């Protein structure tokens, strides 16, 4: 079975002061419940934090705050703003570390017309990448030599184009070179890693969808397995709720004003 590192675990030693900054407010022996009235945390303009002290403490404290979509987008782009000063993202588009500028962070076409994704930024991963490509690091420019990236990318392009995707996957099997196949939607769920972990599920109609993540041991998510409604499936029901009669709905359907899924929607 094809194996590779799916993720790396890092042990963090966090001081109380750092932890306090991470959660905004740290209260001894309390439960912090943050209710973000948002989509993906940063969409809506209001959120509320409810602090519930210990049973012997004072009453709960409610804190209100707000931000805009622009502020949310700017904040999530903090890395880009900081990277401008250290040269990681200060060059034109397509010439930076994470926008396909770096030869070790890009996608490459293989001999059979398929693609591989490469993300070997750290030195130890980059060394594994060069080893798999049968390249001698001593004969190449330094990894972070920006001016040499175009030439190095051309070399990588030629190497990856010399073998099929399957051949490269065998070469990098079990390594930490951060080389992975670029898969289609139909291939993702059948990939050995995803199949072994059960990363995808099927609804009642057989359609596949990602399993909720992260997987929690005590309170695992229970996804709805009902199939998604078909377009127009509830047209009639909605119009009836708005007060239209069955005769009026028939007229609108006949005139093409509205449409419904004939297989499911019934008067």
From TrEMBL:
<dbReference type="Pfam" id="PF02515">
    <property type="entry name" value="CoA_transf_3"/>
</dbReference>
<dbReference type="GO" id="GO:0005739">
    <property type="term" value="C:mitochondrion"/>
</dbReference>
<dbReference type="InterPro" id="IPR003673">
    <property type="entry name" value="CoA-Trfase_fam_III"/>
</dbReference>
<dbReference type="InterPro" id="IPR044855">
    <property type="entry name" value="CoA-Trfase_III_dom3_sf"/>
</dbReference>
<dbReference type="GO" id="GO:0008206">
    <property type="term" value="P:bile acid metabolic process"/>
</dbReference>
<protein>
    <submittedName>
        <fullName>Alpha-methylacyl-CoA racemase</fullName>
    </submittedName>
</protein>
<comment type="similarity">
    <text>Belongs to the CoA-transferase III family.</text>
</comment>
<feature type="region of interest" description="Disordered">
    <location>
        <begin position="194"/>
        <end position="218"/>
    </location>
</feature>
<dbReference type="GO" id="GO:0008111">
    <property type="term" value="F:alpha-methylacyl-CoA racemase activity"/>
</dbReference>
<dbReference type="InterPro" id="IPR050509">
    <property type="entry name" value="CoA-transferase_III"/>
</dbReference>
<feature type="compositionally biased region" description="Basic and acidic residues">
    <location>
        <begin position="194"/>
        <end position="210"/>
    </location>
</feature>
<dbReference type="InterPro" id="IPR023606">
    <property type="entry name" value="CoA-Trfase_III_dom_1_sf"/>
</dbReference>
<keyword id="KW-0413">Isomerase</keyword>
């Amino acid at each position: 079975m094809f194996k590779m590192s799916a993720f790396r675990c890092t042990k963090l030693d966090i001081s109380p002061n750092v932890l306090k900054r991470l959660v905004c407010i740290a209260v001894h022996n309390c439960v912090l419940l943050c209710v973000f009235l948002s989509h993906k945390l940063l969409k809506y303009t209001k959120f509320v934090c409810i602090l519930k002290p210990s049973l012997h403490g004072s009453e709960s404290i409610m804190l209100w705050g707000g931000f805009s979509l622009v502020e949310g987008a700017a904040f999530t782009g903090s890395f880009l703003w900081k990277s401008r000063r250290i040269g990681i993202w200060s060059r034109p588009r397509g010439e930076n570390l994470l926008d396909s500028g770096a030869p070790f962070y890009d996608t490459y076409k293989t001999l059979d017309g398929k693609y591989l994704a490469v993300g070997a930024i750290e030195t130890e991963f980059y060394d594994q990448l060069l080893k798999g490509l049968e390249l001698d690091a001593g004969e190449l420019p330094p990894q972070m030599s920006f001016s040499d990236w175009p030439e190095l990318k051309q070399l990588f392009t030629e190497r990856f184009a010399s073998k099929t995707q399957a051949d490269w996957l065998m070469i990098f099997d079990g390594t930490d070179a951060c080389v992975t196949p670029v898969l289609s939607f139909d291939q993702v769920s059948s990939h050995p890693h995803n199949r072994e972990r059960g990363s995808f599920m099927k609804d009642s109609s057989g359609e596949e969808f990602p399993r909720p993540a992260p997987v929690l041991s005590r309170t695992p998510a229970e996804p709805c397995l009902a199939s998604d409604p078909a377009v127009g499936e509830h047209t009639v029901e909605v119009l009836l709720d708005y007060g239209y009669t069955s005769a009026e709905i028939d007229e609108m359907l006949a005139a093409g004003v509205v449409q419904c899924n004939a297989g499911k929607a019934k008067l």
